[in-house]
Design brief:
- The chain has a 4-stranded mixed sheet with strand order 3-2-1-4, sandwiched between helices.
- It is α+β, with helices and mostly antiparallel strands.
- It is about 50% helix and about 15% strand.
Length: about 200
């Protein structure tokens, strides 16, 4: 019987990330990933979240979404994309786009046709931040290293060339208050496009 090699937490997370990336089309479960690392699902979930900054489920969702974007650019049908990514149906793919990008797959594919995006720069407990929202949630959030948001605005126009984009301090401030303040003034949860940790968001 082969002897188990003791792994550091760093090595475990590196192995977990590799395992998920290589099997994204199979949508591995928490139990399957934990079993591969010889850990309990509870222990693995806590370990991964602490080191990666997001849960294993969210990490898999982000990878799935990025792969779906590639396939959409090839004009693949939604049902075919969903099937190739191991999703139960196109509604699951739709949910991924709404929850992580705050847009539908169709809006993403068409570069924001008929989509309205509002943006502004606001102060937060962690410094100034650039935020952009759609009617469904946040589609861009970045902390600013300096006071300039020109680069983020340029990227916003580049990613959504056909969207209607305009500045709106009032509506975006309501979202900032929900994220960092004590006021819960929105009538639904905030959808946030996450890449990296929960506040290291790049769009």
């Amino acid at each position: 019987m082969p002897r188990k090699v003791k792994m550091s937490d760093y090595d475990r997370i590196a192995e977990a990330i590799s395992f998920i990336i290589n099997r994204v089309n199979n949508q591995p479960t928490l139990e399957e990933i934990a079993r591969h690392l010889h850990l309990s699902p509870f222990h693995f979930h806590r370990l991964f979240s602490r080191w990666a900054g997001v849960t294993p489920k969210r990490f898999l969702q982000v990878l799935t979404l990025e792969r779906a974007k590639q396939l959409l650019s090839e004009s693949r049908p939604l049902l075919e994309i969903s099937d190739s990514l191991g999703l139960s149906g196109s509604s699951r793919l739709y949910d991924h786009f709404i929850h992580l990008e705050a847009v539908t797959p169709g809006e993403y594919k068409m570069g924001g046709v008929d989509l309205t995006i509002e943006y502004a720069v606001h102060d937060t407990p962690f410094g100034k931040a650039f935020i952009a929202i759609t009617p469904r949630g946040i589609c861009n959030f970045s902390f600013l290293e300096n006071a300039e948001a020109d680069g983020h605005l340029t990227n916003l126009f580049k990613k959504w060339p056909h969207a209607t984009v305009h500045e709106n301090h009032q509506r975006t401030f309501a979202v900032i208050e929900t994220m960092f303040g004590k006021k819960q003034i929105l009538d639904r949860p905030v959808s946030l496009h996450v890449s990296g940790t929960n506040f290291q968001v790049s769009v």
